[in-house]
Each structure stands twice: as structure tokens, then as C-alpha cells.
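Input set for joint prediction.
Command: fold jointly, output C-alpha cells.
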Amino acid sequence: MTSERSIILKPIGIVRTEALGDEVKDKKHLSEIVIDCELTPALEGITEFSHIFVLFWLSEISVEQQQMMKVHPRGRRDLPLLGVFATRTNLRPNPIGLTLVELVKVEGNVLTVRGLDAYDGTPVLDVKPFDFWDTAKDARVPKWWLKLEEEKKHNA
Amino acid sequence: MTSERSIILKPIGIVRTEALGDEVKDKKHLSEIVIDCELTPALEGITEFSHIFVLFWLSEISVEQQQMMKVHPRGRRDLPLLGVFATRTNLRPNPIGLTLVELVKVEGNVLTVRGLDAYDGTPVLDVKPFDFWDTAKDARVPKWWLKLEEEKKHNA
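C-alpha cells >
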């Protein structure tokens, strides 16, 4: 064990959305991120970026689920059993969600974003502007990932 | 205040690097991420991705620094004073670092990565594979950001 110390975070805000269940995975749907009022000044200038990363806390994940080591991507038993760090599953030791979203508008302490796959009431930990260091043009992904995307296209 | 509850995290590992000071910002330098031994199975399959996001805890940031609302990007007073959420500054309410790195190799519980701007001893919170939903081809960034990049190129 290399790292015993605990870290304490306090949410900076909360997700508001009318989307239910799998509707939150629809990349076109709009959500609001309501930032705590006292942090409103920390948003100044964010509208100059078209996209932001949202870091949020997957509050529905239990302590037992945080201890899972392996999963089938999206629960699909026809895909390989993989370590949780090789997937984007919610079931991970520190269940922090990370999603790139389009920043549609900002009004006071409320950000309207497109494509946030987080449920209503989800605690938000951070928002960060997206810049061109956040991408890898030559990235390689596994076959199982490409297969899932291909299927999604066919079902769309 | 919308979100009173505290969240407790436990690091999954630690950064090991010989780079000191600004050397960690060199995108070419190699670091190791030593994952806690009991989490080694959770890495299975990660080598099929060429790039991963590393989420880490900026442990050198004080409580006072976490309360800062505005900064000049990279401390440059000739650039606009901006809300911390409009920058990638370390000085933010929850000082979580987020960096996309190249995954060079994995041996047991040790990931070797290229381009991690974190100091030796930094606690790691999560690693996530990079896929093509994590990028925005049509992204817009502010003029100050482009200016900084342009300067970096000239100084390289």
C-alpha cells in the first residue's frame, strides 16, 4: 500500500436534468450545472471555451461496488472481462465521472451543457475548460470499443 | 449552498518521477504511476489503449489557495484576470489534476506514461482510458490561450 491518506472533497455544485435512466446517455440532451452561489466569480471567462470537462461524483455507487476489480464493458458478457481501469465503468475505487460537454450558455451560477451523462442531483466536483492538449489525434482504442460504437451507429 | 456533503477519496497509487520543478511540464518526460498492489487486477486490458487520463490530487495546494476565485493564467499579469474554472490552474476548490498522457508500458502494478505534469509523490485518484468521445474537433478556445501556445512554440 503506497497511499494510506484520505482526501476530502466538497462538491462545487449539482447537476439538474429532467432526463431519466438511459436518457442521460443521449449526447444531445441538455443539463444544467448549478454551481454554489459563492463560487460564481470563479466562472468568469469560461464562456470563451466551447467545451468543458465536468468531473462529478457517482454518488449511487456503493462501497462494495467501489471494490470491484473487473467488469464486462457495459455489462456485455460477449465482450472481454477487463480491469475497471481499462474501461469507463462507474464501478471504480474512486467513482469520479469525467465527461466532455458542450458549454451552451452561462447565466449567473448556472451552466447549461449538452451531453452530460449524469443523473439529476449528481454532485459536481470540478469543471475545467477543454483545450488542444486534451486530445490525442493518433490514439489507439481496443477492438471491443470500436465494436460497441459500430453497434451504436446501427441502432441510432 | 446546494451541496453540503463531503466526499472521501482514497488514492489508488502514487506518481514517481525524477523530474523536478518545471521539468514535469515537459510533455516528453516519462513518469511512473505505481498503483497499489491490491488493485493490479483492475489494470487488465489497459494496454490496449494508447492514451489514458490521469486524475491526481494536487496535494501541495493549501486550504487558502483552494478558496481563490480568480487568477491570471500561469500568473501572467498581462493576461486577463479570470475565474479559476475558466483556467486549468491548480488553485481551485477541489484541486484535482487532469492530464491526458501516452501509456508507454505496463509492468505489474507500474504504468510508465509520457507527459504527466505531476510531481514525485503526487497521489493518483483514477486512471481512465481515452476514447474518441473525449475530444471535440470543433472546439473554440480563448485568444489568451492561443497566445500562450504561440509563445511556447517560439521559446521551444
